[in-house]
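Researcher: Here's the sequence for the chain we discussed earlier.
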Amino acid sequence: MPLFLINLYVKTYYKMISKKIWVPIYDYRIWYVEVEGPEDLPKLLKLAKKVNLGEENIKEIELKVKNQDEGGATTFHRKSDCSLFVIIYPQPSVYRREECISHEKRHCEDFILEHLGIDDKEAAAYLAGWLDLQFRY
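Model: Thanks. This is the structure I predict for it:
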């Protein structure tokens, strides 16, 4: 097996990544967080409270991180203030992390375009490319 493929199946440890992304053309805000483990929980909960995710959602986030469930992600959509909150939970591999990021990015695209009533494939393609750069770099 080529060496670069082996790295896809080895867990790589990162520090928590947290970004606030503004999508100027659609006036949407996205809070994007990649969590690595329980040590990130205090920062994550502080941010979730700051953006008023609601007690039920915050409890769900807390349980997921405390139980150290590997895999999965969540996107919360709040239409009232045109905002999204994306959490990528700890992943068993780099490959799985990339898959989750792409999956949640797609939810963001759909939520934004549907909420604003935009049904245009070219607009969706531009948004997809732009969000990919924001999430990954």
